[in-house]
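Convert to structure. Protein one:
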Amino acid sequence: MFLKRAAALTAAFLMIIHLCGCGAEKEQESMVFAMDTVMTMRLYGGDEELMKSLESRIKELEGLFSVTDEGSEIYELNHTGSAELSDDTMDLVARGLELCRTTGGALDLTVYPIVRAWGFTTGEYRVPNEDELRELLKTCDHEKINISGSMVSIDEGMELDLGAVAKGYTADVLTAMVKEAGVKSALLDLGGNISLIGEKPGGGSWGVGVRDPFSEENIGVLRLSDCMAVTSGSYERNFEQNGRVYHHIIDPDTGMPADSGLASVTIIGEEGTLCDGLSTALFVMGLEDGLDLWRRMDDFEAVFVTDEGEIFITEGLEGSFDSEHSYEVCRR
């Protein structure tokens, strides 16, 4: 089971607008259920063997990264305290830990026991008491993940979950395969982790709708090509108890659902792993700290929607974001 599964498997966090085009290449489409979500791949070019290879690679990566599959490397690590990891798993762990450090721990790969205590992995929702959270927080610390060559070990009580970056990494792997095969136009939707390869068929940018966190509508459309886009939002998975709504994005510092003033964050960049991890981390960090990180880095852009419905976009998206709503452009 993966941490960032979709609330409804048929609904993506980012909606693709105007998919059709008048390109000459034959369209191929495949739908795969993996990593707790529905993944859709549309290729304009390539052949059936390429599509089969993509499907097989998805299943291979799922088998390595799953926290519930008894045959996975992560399951072995979590249940024995150590494991020798394959190149893919080690690569993802290394990238994930780099993002943990970059975000000051707003992203933490060891938060899984806390997420499970809230019932977000099982659907058996509950509010843990303060003593329970205090004990669980002792096991949440990405800095205690020990790496020696291909061996990884964790302290007793800790559990590693790559769900915050696994779909992004998978998007990176599949995108490289599609491009290496010479396909010039493709759309990969891995449960809301969007990879846009080239332009849409017939030319021009793809239209990516950014969902309104407070309705089923879109707040706007991003005109994008040859990039990744990932959204994290409080609407994805939540429950209500005693008049209060609790969502699934946990703040590793408190063990509580992040109370950052944000309702959703969309990250756009060239690397899926980065976009995936940052969409969670910036949601936890909040608008101001998220913008501070964006100003220190130069490899992503973002759309923020606050709890009050305010919309902020970073300056790299100016001219690419169409919306009937008012929004503010944030500058470096």
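Protein two, convert as well:
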Amino acid sequence: MMSAFTLSRLRLTVQVIMLFFTVYGGAIVGHYLADKVTGALPALSCAFDQQNAGYCVLIPMQHQLHHRVGESIVRAQQFSVEYIIPFGFTMLTFFAFFVVLNKAFCGWICPLGTVQELAYKLGRRLKLGIRRLTQDTVGRVRPVKWAVLILLVLVLPLMAGLGYTSYVTGDAYCQVCPSRIVTTLLTANTEQIAVNTADTTAFLFSAARSAIFGFILILAFGMRQPYCRVCPMLALHAIFRKVVPLRLAKVDANDKCGKCKACYQACPMDIHEVAFEFGSKAFHADCTMCGRCVEFCPDDGVLSLKLGPVALFKSSGAYMKRRAKIDKPDGTLPKKKTSTQPAPAE
């Protein structure tokens, strides 16, 4: 008997396919074609994985700031069109990809996001404890991703290009990104987990990278998407989330929402706004477009994933009842029903 369709199953299928594509794509399609894919979609996976078929958009952004913008200021003491144009095209390719997927990159494609989600599912099957952040804690964590974007992705690479900081900071974010370890370990490459002792800066960055990876991996067994909350890619997507057609939508009518808070319970990012706000305010900057809030909303048509005016998936009470048989909003498995029928007489 075929299993009933659920958005989560579809998303997990896409996540697993994209995980294999971003990690092993180069080996599957050949490195020549992989280079072509990389040029067309420069937002897929870690550049340190030598077998992949794409790379994270943050690496060319940092390299352009380091090798193009920063060094051009030193040489010419002014921004030259010769160096600004490559950086502009780096951003344009990101925007082109972003217009298609919006923040769904985080919830459906990102290899690190997929690994965290699989770790959480394993934690539920092992019946490990669940750790959720309170609204106050979430409020304190949210600014971190913006600080990481500004300091590690933008400022330090530019400072390296200007000659004020070590060359190691030319890709400062990639030096500490746990995705660098996750994707390479999946190809049996252990080089990125080793501590670099070339100099003090390299040692500190590599030690921090390994520590962050271990910490995130342990957290992921009991907390949903721990690293996504501080990831600069989420911040980069959030800046333009309201100007692209793919988005989360909630009806702007208080009386149509049953206020059961199931959407908030289902949200891996602990976004309380999805339960308490209406209209565009419910689509928060931390949303990864995973669609779990829509799946677990029992009110017909209150929440939806939309592409422009077209609703791709709407909340439905009937769907929610089927969905709840697979897992609860927080990801725990439902209790198996025991038979209450009396035993047959001998």
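The two ends are 33 Å apart (CA to CA). The mean pLDDT is 84.
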